[in-house]
Design brief:
GO terms for molecular function: serine-type carboxypeptidase activity. By secondary structure, the protein is an alpha/beta fold. It is 37% helix and 18% strand. Helix 4 (198-213) links the parallel strand 10 and strand 11 (220-224). Helix 3 (166-183) packs across helix 4 (198-213) and helix 8 (265-285) runs antiparallel to helix 9. The longest helix has 21 residues, at 265-285.
């Protein structure tokens, strides 16, 4: 229940709010604070929400961008010295922070059904599983996402290369985080980064940049539906790694052979993973020199585990593209399956073809997220502006060169004995598959000396596994446990 006591700290905030509503500009540096309560695990948690903009400065001290963010702090604690701080990013790379903000860790979540589908009237409700009981959270929108924008100086055009690239993104966000932590007196707090999708590339690079450039050491990094982090898995590895995801999606849609369909998913997936690594990968590595008997044997086994026909697999030379899988799995039933979450169904103009017409899951999500974030920021947090909230903003061309973020994370872990990593993936995610996430984890530390600090958790949903209520609870509980297990009060940082 929101406390109807809106706190405007300064008269200038009221004035700036009116200006924002009249012009398509946004202040570079402003903050609006409101007080609220939420019930988490049957306990009432009072908190304040601070939402506004904080500048990004260049090397000359000129403001070059203003990042919109929302910061939640529990208010019934005497001191935040020992209270963890979670800094949250989404991906894209042009995506706003709305997804995890209004559906995962925050105190308010979307009004959706238990499986994650939109319902009307749109809006938000209390999140009974939010981690606000154990950590304060700030949701950050990088440049051109959400309400965040670059700022031109006089007649000088904005240099987007300062923002739009793997390493540029990490560099300016590390500086921004330093300023945020200083402004809010959080230097003594245990600190965590969480990123989803491309956000995992972002936070993996930030782990080392914060450590080596800002001298800010973390207790944990949480990777939700991670990307490859610059770790190579091309060719036969990439093709073989798809099969466990194929099996999960096919099992969900009940198109596997009866004897396999009768097994639980937790039984099937280890079996398919073992086949993918031990049998399929060596076979694919032989390419066109694989003998015909073995080729047909592999096609038969792939069909058994994927729900596709042997003929479709052979026509793709055993290397089945994921886009073809989304189109072909339920072709005879007249549906496509979603890319980011293959539980979702789509309808194409033609049943023929090699890929779906659209991403059925994303259109479903935008149904509920877009009205909710626009309503929530304006009417509940009182941040009023005529600037458009960019669910996906213009950030291209994005410089993807020099992506060493997986190695950055490994270095940060090696240098910081406190640093632990949690990986969370949905089994039905066809864009950043759970088995690719496992493979990335295996390759992250080739020495194996830090594997006890790497943890993987899987869920029976997709890219945003928290949209399914059962997984929302489980995934937040896993973060709670991860934070608890990575707090190191009184323990020296040494090997």
């Amino acid at each position: 229940m929101i406390v109807k006591n809106i706190l405007f700290l300064f008269t200038s905030m009221v004035f700036s709010c009116a200006i924002m509503a009249q012009q398509k500009t946004i202040p570079n540096d402003t903050l609006i604070v409101t007080n609220h309560k939420v019930t988490i695990n049957n306990k009432t948690i009072p908190y304040k929400a601070s939402t506004g903009t904080q500048p990004v400065w260049d090397e000359k001290g000129e403001i070059i961008a203003a990042l919109h963010h929302t910061y939640y702090e529990r208010t019934d604690v005497k001191s935040n010295q020992e209270r963890p701080l979670l800094i949250s990013f989404n991906g894209g790379p042009g995506s706003a922070s709305v997804w995890m903000h209004l559906a995962y860790t925050g105190p308010r979540i979307l009004k959706i059904d238990d499986e994650g589908y939109p319902v009307q009237p749109y809006g938000v409700k209390e999140n009974p599983y939010s981690i606000l009981d154990v950590a304060d959270i700030v949701y950050v929108n990088p440049v051109n996402t959400g309400y965040s924008r670059s700022v031109s100086t006089g007649d000088v055009e904005v240099d987007t290369s300062k923002f739009f690239g793997v390493n540029a993104d990490i560099l300016y966000l590390a500086e921004w985080i330093n300023t945020f932590v200083s402004r809010h007196n959080r230097w003594r707090s245990p600190k965590y980064l969480i990123g989803e999708s491309y956000g995992t590339t972002r936070v993996s690079g930030l782990a080392l940049a914060l450590q080596n450039r800002q001298w800010m050491y973390l207790n944990g990094v949480i990777l939700v539906s991670p990307t490859g982090l610059g770790i190579e898995r091309d060719g036969a590895v990439e093709a073989a790694n798809r099969l466990p995801y194929f099996a999960a999606a096919a099992w969900h849609h009940k198109v596997l052979q009866p004897e396999l369909q009768a097994k639980d998913l937790d039984v099937i997936l280890p079996e398919v993973e073992k086949y993918a690594i031990n049998d399929l990968l060596p076979a694919l590595a032989k390419g066109g020199f694989l003998n015909e008997v073995k080729r047909r044997e592999v096609a038969s086994k792939m069909a058994y585990y994927s729900g596709l026909s042997e003929q479709s697999i052979l026509r793709n030379n055993l290397d089945v593209p994921v886009s073809f899988f989304w189109k072909d799995l339920l072709r005879e039933k007249g549906f496509t399956v979603g890319r980011l979450d293959s539980r979702y169904l789509g309808i194409d103009k033609k049943e023929a073809g090699t890929s779906p017409d659209y991403n059925s899951e994303l259109t479903s999500w935008l149904h509920s997220f877009t009205p909710a974030i626009n309503y929530y920021l304006r009417e509940e947090l009182n941040f009023i502006t005529d600037i458009k909230y960019n669910m996906f903003g213009p950030v291209h061309p994005w410089d993807r060169s020099g992506n060493n973020t997986g190695e950055n994370l490994r270095q940060a872990m090696a240098q910081n004995p406190y640093l632990k990593v949690l990986i969370q993936s949905g089994y039905y995610d066809g864009a950043t598959s759970y088995f690719d996430a496992k493979y990335t984890m295996w390759q992250l530390d080739p020495s194996g000396k830090m594997k006890d600090r790497l943890q993987f958790e899987g869920y029976r949903s997709g890219h945003m596994m928290y949209l399914r209520q059962e997984d929302l609870k489980a995934a937040n509980d896993h973060i709670r446990e991860f934070i608890s297990n990575s707090l190191t009060e009184g323990k020296p940082a040494k090997y």
